[in-house]
Amino acid sequence: MNAIKTIICGAVLSLTVSCQKYLDIVPDNIATVEYAFRMRVTAEKYLFTCYSFLPRMGDMYQNPAMFGGDELWLSADKSWWPNWVVALGNQNVNNPVLDYWNGANSAMALWTGISQCNIFLEHIDQVPDMDDREKAQWAAEAKFLKAYYHFFLLRMYGPIPIIDENLPISASGEEVRVMRRPVDEVFEYVVNLLDELAPDLPNEVRDENSELGRITKPIAIGMKAKVLTYAASPLFNGNTDYAGFTNRDGIPLFNTTYSAEKWVRAAEACKAAIELCHSLGYALYEFEGSQQTRNISADTKLHLTTRGTITERWNNEIIWANTGSTTRDLQVWAAPRVLEPSHVGNQEPNGSIGVTMKVVNLFYSKNGVPIDEDVTYNYSERYALRTSTANEKYQVKEGYTTSRLNFDREPRFYGTLGFDGGVWYGQGRFDDNDPYYLQIKKEQIGGKIQVGWHSVTGYYAKKWINYTNTSVNTGTYTSINWPWVMLRLADLYLLYAEALNEAQGPNPESIRYVDLVREKAGLDGVVDSWANFSKNPQKPSTVDGLREIIHRERNIELALESQRFWDLRRWKTAPEELNQSISGWDVDQVTPEAYYRVRVLYDQMFGLKDYFWPIRENDLIVNKNLTQNPGW
Question: Among 21-25, 180-184, 300-304, whose mean pLDDT is lowest?
């Protein structure tokens, strides 16, 4: 019997491991690849092992983009959470948090995942009880995972090695000491691999009961569009900040010459992905409800459209969701602790996650333009107090006094955020003339009672909470455990609009796809909204102006979905955004006058080194061919 004749990628990069541990499906006394591929059922288990390395983006600790940026904030007792360590500026080179290079500190070992994919691809053809069509499909799935793991590492670390095949066990020491490859070369490798595998994938899974989450053609084509948009973005396209960043052999790792053709290519890929999705029935989500919600208002329906886009499992907008990364714990930590007096004493949910004032300010006015641009919005008095009337009862509890900042905002504001006095529809109460509402000032039923278990900013991530979740008693919280959404149609629409604007300048097609997303949210189109309500009515007619609009639309539509963290980096706007203060309301206060004062929670800092993760110093010592990212 032949033992596994490969060196795993972790060994290739650090030389601290000599051989991959065999899978659990292989008995201890039969450590062979042949055993793993002796029949279809064992080969499928090996394929699922390849899937198991997908980063769990719905996990509070594993997702770099969840707490690593400026959308969400936590109480001081959670300063050990790995991704929040990044937001606090405490990343290090000796023992990096979320070390996806090595699979340490709450991260998956992605080089090992790539190695497992390579082993699978080397041996899938030898499985006797499978036909060629199914072998080709499974191989395509493994190739996609390999491509995605390379892209994930590229997005985190910049230039990385390309491991297309595992090295034989006879490889020399110099062969094992791999080098990082230029970012353009890595992008091209990922895209070529996606092109190669796509024809062998099905348009949809055959059995939704057992196969949802498996890779399909729309996922592959959609991710190709996303990868090419990243390749065209300022961080990777003509970035002169890394002009001196080279390999040991002097090869530049960044191409500092800007290429407009990259945006053209990205736009074409986005269009192809959208057309494929349309042909297969994908469409922007709209809340339809149930017998319980049949009489809700148009306002509440729009709010639930925002929530349901990600929390209604496998709706028609979702192209890819990771079934290995569900959100039960996330919802427990994000949902308010108390919605009514009978909930006092709940052990779950605990409401420990706060949405920052930055995100609050991003959302448009009810007229669909930024609140500091709206000629009808009293921006200078936005923090003053105001009492809700019957006209606002679907947004703010009638008769409740809260900040003016919480009034006259677009529907996505109310679907995404929970706030003091804000209506919280559902959770067992489905009459939107008598919904729950938040009472979260100190000494109110949902107010601060200890260091944790409350939103430190005064805003909650309502978007994450399925509206049917309920607190049955003080010890039981029932929830819809939705899988983390990796790619959805609105994301592709906005990527397409962005790429077209960069390639052609302002154009009707870009505006049309932004307007489709806005229409879903209950807003008028860009041109009319800016013409009628903005201090800068010509903004959509310039490249820079439309770019700003598209960027903001992504930040709003995809808020709290782990997109902003990466978008700020690829746009190279991170220094502008992440060198600002994190702030919220003064949640230690009892009266509205004291509570509604903006309090600075932290002064973030972002420098050139923060664009990419550091490589662990020990890896650089072991492999002299590796170079560290600038600034670390």
Answer: 21-25
